[in-house]
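User: Hi! I have a protein structure encoded as tokens and I'd like to know what sequence might fold into it. I'm fairly new to this, so please keep things simple.
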């Protein structure tokens, strides 16, 4: 093997060059190669006495506490505008999409369970139909075992459908649990957002009023200074009172503005704490949701794989029964049970119609045509020969062709 250690330490793909089929026959060499591969993909792996550690999937499962070690919600969902909820809204939208995903997976599980249930019922009905009812002996036993195991397969699919519905129910409960917890936090945050927005508006209004009072005070002071040297004492007193009133109003507006700023600062501090707390909880919920959905799909696939194993085990019973099916034995069983005789019927012999002789063997001879003359000559009607017993009825007066 060449140029492998540099590639693994550099954390980049490499090509393993294996020289000959016998280069990995040594156990220590194999273990070093596998250790290097595990180190490349999973980090440092300790290997003592050339014995590799056992690696399981659960060793690399992401727990809610280990998700997002470097990036957190509370650090990346702020916005310069104090009244803006853009960061919070982005998190809420992400949670809503996660909730929708849970609903979609839940509906998928329920639909898949319905498919399995319909398939199980159809398969169960199929197993009840007549199949090989007239067969006998070993083949009949195999066909009966076939029907029985098909029925068991249908029952296992029905159980699988129930398991899927149970997983869908757990997912629904998890979704509702997170929804309730999220609802409380959202209500608190909505109240804080409203309070913060109203206090911010009140503060900005007081700021505007304070600035206007300050401008009024400056204008009153300028008027008083412009008329300081006038001889109209009433006007001077009036401007002085106006300046004093403007100063008092400005001071009151200043105090109100400062108080609103202080109140807004307190509300902001409370909001910051609640926002950080909500981000941490929402981040935890997101990690739990991702982990739960991952485990749910994993469990679903395990159930499907287990169903395949169960079906194969049931089919194996049928295969074992088919192995016991003996063709010759079934044939002999039928012969012994239904035999009708050991002697075949005798052959049909030829019988001559004229000679009455039978030909036991051989084909029937060709039949000759009958002779041309089968009767003697016709009697002469002019001769009245009474000696031979013949009599002509033509001269008989009572003879008539018509019979009555």
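Assistant: Happy to help. Inverse folding works backwards from shape to sequence: for each of the 404 positions I chose a residue that suits the local structure. Here it is:
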């Amino acid at each position: 093997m060449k140029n492998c250690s540099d590639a693994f330490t550099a954390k980049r793909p490499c090509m393993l060059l294996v020289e000959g089929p016998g280069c990995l026959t040594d156990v220590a060499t194999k273990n070093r190669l596998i250790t290097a591969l595990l180190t490349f993909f999973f980090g440092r792996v300790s290997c003592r006495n050339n014995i590799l550690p056992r690696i399981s999937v659960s060793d690399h499962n992401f727990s809610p506490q280990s998700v997002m070690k470097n990036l957190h919600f509370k650090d990346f969902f702020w916005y310069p505008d104090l009244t803006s909820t853009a960061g919070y809204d982005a998190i809420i939208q992400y949670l809503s999409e996660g909730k929708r995903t849970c609903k979609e997976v839940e509906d998928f599980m329920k639909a898949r369970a319905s498919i399995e249930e319909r398939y199980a019922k159809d398969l169960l009905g199929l197993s009840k139909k007549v199949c090989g009812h007239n067969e006998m002996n070993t083949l009949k036993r195999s066909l009966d075992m076939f029907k029985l195991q098909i029925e068991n397969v249908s029952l296992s699919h029905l159980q699988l459908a129930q398991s899927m519905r149970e997983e869908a129910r757990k997912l629904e409960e998890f979704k509702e649990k997170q929804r309730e917890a999220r609802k409380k936090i959202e209500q608190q945050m909505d109240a804080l957002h409203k309070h913060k927005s109203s206090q911010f508006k009140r503060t900005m209004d007081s700021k505007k009023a304070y600035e206007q009072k300050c401008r009024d005070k400056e204008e009153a002071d300028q008027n008083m200074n412009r008329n300081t040297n006038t001889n109209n004492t009433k006007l001077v007193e009036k401007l002085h009172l106006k300046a004093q009133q403007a100063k008092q109003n400005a001071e009151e507006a200043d105090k109100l503005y400062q108080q609103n700023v202080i109140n807004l600062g307190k509300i902001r501090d409370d909001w910051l704490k609640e926002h950080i707390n909500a981000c941490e909880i929402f981040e935890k919920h997101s990690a739990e949701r991702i982990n739960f959905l991952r485990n749910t799909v994993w469990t679903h696939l395990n159930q499907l794989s287990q169903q395949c194993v169960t079906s194969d085990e049931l089919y194996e019973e049928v295969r074992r029964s088919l192995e016991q099916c003996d063709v010759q034995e079934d044939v002999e069983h039928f012969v012994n049970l239904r035999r009708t005789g050991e002697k075949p019927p005798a052959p049909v012999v030829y019988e001559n119609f004229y000679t009455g002789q039978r030909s036991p063997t051989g084909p029937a001879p060709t039949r000759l045509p009958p002779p041309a003359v089968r009767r003697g000559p016709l009697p002469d009607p002019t001769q009245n020969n009474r000696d031979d017993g013949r009599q002509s009825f033509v001269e008989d007066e009572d003879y008539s062709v018509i019979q009555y």
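A useful reference point when you look it over: Confidence is low (pLDDT under 50) at residues 1-27, 40-62, 385-394. Feel free to ask if any position seems puzzling.
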